[in-house]
Structure formats: structure tokens, C-alpha cells
Design a protein that fits this description.
By secondary structure, the chain is of the alpha+beta class. The chain folds into two domains: 3-11 and 150-272, no CATH class; 19-145, no CATH class. 22% of the residues lie in helices and 31% in strands. The protein has helices spanning 30-43, 47-53, 136-145, 155-169, 217-220, 252-263; strands at residues 3-8, 19-21, 58-68, 77-83, 88-94, 96-99, 104-107, 112-118, 130-135, 181-185, 194-199, 204-209, 226-231, 236-237, 250-251, 267-272. It has a six-stranded antiparallel beta sheet, sandwiched between helices. Strands 2, 3, 4, 5, 8 and 9 form a six-stranded antiparallel beta sheet that branches.
């Protein structure tokens, strides 16, 4: 097992089937929406977002449930949030399904963000949404107060991430590095099962993604975790329009944001490589 020396610093793509509006479930709590706001503040917003939001007394969120064509053993729920003042559209999922061949049930604690998109056009069917209003001043104060708040993966989860990365790269011609290596792990988001890591020695940004709660150890043995490695030398573009249809690239803005969250808000780890070990299964 790798030796990990911890030194904590002071310091979001799943393709969905066609969707239509469903009967509305009870609205999210203000506390949960604040957590959505904190994730968007940390991972999605920039100066232009603040300008778009303006100085309205209230911050408005549109919410609707979504119907998705699912398998017989899948009772997962989906919800869509539209943030008109930020011109952002978010899709969330609460996983709830059975794996019949294993006799196991996957159930997430809450809805988790699957994707956040910028959109200049509001949804056409405005009557399909519930309108939720948050006090703008209270929300801004919360975001400012918690902007550096962070929770890190524990040692067990970190080791599983390390083995998942090793398994993913074992099928490539990437040569192993000798000597100590430095990585930075971004904080875990309470509303997302994506986890970003900056491998400083390699110059890699690594995205770990999961359909289940990423800290749920039991599900790791059943489903595995997705791993996507972005080389900062070759896999960064100004706009994804340059590489339409490819998920192998990230934008320069996103790379900068991810590196910031990893280095400034993240946890620094020194890794001493050891011989390969068995890794958990990877999601196709």
C-alpha cells in the first residue's frame, strides 16, 4: 500500500435519456439549496455570473421533477433546477435501484448534481416549475462565510481512488514514475459525487465520478468508479466547440478552477509509489 503523508493546506458527464416533466415532489429545503449554491459558487460561477445575478432582493430558483425511462429495477428520481439570474440549468439525480444479479440495493442519501449547463434561454414551459425564493443577502452571506469550508476524503477512500487510478492507467503506455509524488485532493461536495484531484508531478487533472455516494464503501465493491484523466499539456482547450463530441478535453477556465480548488482548498498528499495492487472495478 502506498505511504500517504497528509498535509492539509490552509488554504461536475452523464448522458441522460429524453426527459419530460413529472408530478412535483415536495420542494428542496433551503438548507439543501444553500449547499447547491455553495457548489455552484465554488465550481461554476465567475465574475460574469455575479454581474448577471444583479442586486435583486431575492434569488429565484425554478424546480421541477423529471420523468426518465428507467429499467424495471430502477426507481431513481431526477430533478431539474433552473437559476434564471445565473442563466444556469442543473440536473440532479437520487439513485435508487437494485442490482438483481448481486442482490444488492443502491440508494443515495440525497439528490446529487449530475451536470450544470449555462443557457441564455429560459425553459419554454415555465408553468411546469415550482418557483422557490431565497433571500439574496442571506444567501450571499452564507456563500461568503463558507467559501473556504471543506471536507476531505478519509484514508480508506483515498486508497480506493489511488487503486482506481492505477487500474485505469494500467491499460495505457504511461510509464511509472520513480520517487515521491505530490497530489492535491479537492474537498468533497455534499451535493456531487464527482471528486477532482490534481497530480502536480504528472501535470494531470483527474476526475473521479460515481453514480452512488462516493464515500459509500459497500458500493465500491459492486459498481466501481469512473476515472477520467486530463493532461494539462494536451487535453485543455479554450472552448469545447473546438472538439465537439469529445469528452476527452476540458476548457482552460475549468482547468484553472479545478486546480484552484485542489491546491488552495484541497489537501496536499505526498505519495511514495509501491508495486501495483488489485484495484476496484471501473465503470464503463
Amino acid at each position: 500500500m502506498s505511504h500517504l503523508r497528509w498535509s492539509c493546506l490552509l488554504c461536475l458527464s452523464t448522458v441522460l435519456p429524453m426527459i419530460v416533466a413529472a408530478d412535483q415532489a415536495p420542494p428542496f429545503t433551503s438548507e439543501f439549496l444553500y449547499e447547491i449554491g455553495r457548489h455552484v459558487y465554488r465550481w461554476e460561477m465567475d465574475e460574469t455570473s455575479v454581474l448577471r445575478a444583479g442586486l435583486d432582493a431575492d434569488f429565484v430558483i425554478w424546480s421541477r421533477d423529471l420523468n426518465v425511462n428507467l429499467d424495471d429495477h430502477d426507481a431513481s428520481r431526477y430533478r431539474e433546477l433552473y437559476l434564471p439570474q445565473l442563466q444556469m440549468l442543473a440536473t440532479l439525480k437520487k439513485a435508487d435501484y437494485t442490482i438483481p444479479e448481486m442482490g444488492r440495493h443502491v440508494l443515495n442519501r440525497n439528490y446529487m448534481l449530475q451536470k450544470v449547463e449555462r443557457t441564455e434561454t429560459a425553459p419554454a414551459d415555465t408553468n411546469a416549475y415550482q418557483k422557490i425564493t431565497l433571500n439574496r443577502k442571506a444567501l450571499v452571506e452564507y456563500l461568503f462565510r463558507t467559501r473556504a469550508q471543506r471536507n476531505y476524503p478519509d484514508k480508506t477512500l483515498l486508497e480506493r481512488l489511488r487503486l482506481a487510478l492505477r487500474s485505469a492507467k494500467s491499460h495505457t503506455d504511461t510509464a511509472p514514475l520513480a520517487g515521491p509524488q505530490t497530489v492535491y485532493v479537492a474537498p468533497i461536495s455534499p451535493v456531487s459525487n464527482d471528486l477532482w484531484v490534481f497530480h502536480e508531478t504528472r501535470g494531470w487533472l483527474i476526475k473521479f465520478s460515481s453514480d452512488f455516494d462516493i464515500d459509500n464503501q459497500a458500493c465500491w465493491d459492486l459498481v466501481g468508479v469512473g476515472v477520467q484523466v486530463y493532461d494539462l499539456d494536451t487535453d485543455v482547450v479554450v472552448s469545447l466547440d473546438e472538439v465537439q463530441g469529445s469528452h476527452a478535453f476540458i476548457t482552460r477556465d475549468w482547468a484553472a478552477r479545478a486546480v484552484f480548488n485542489c491546491i488552495v482548498l484541497g489537501c496536499r498528499i505526498e505519495v511514495t509509489p509501491t508495486p501495483a495492487a488489485n484495484a476496484p472495478p471501473l465503470k464503463n
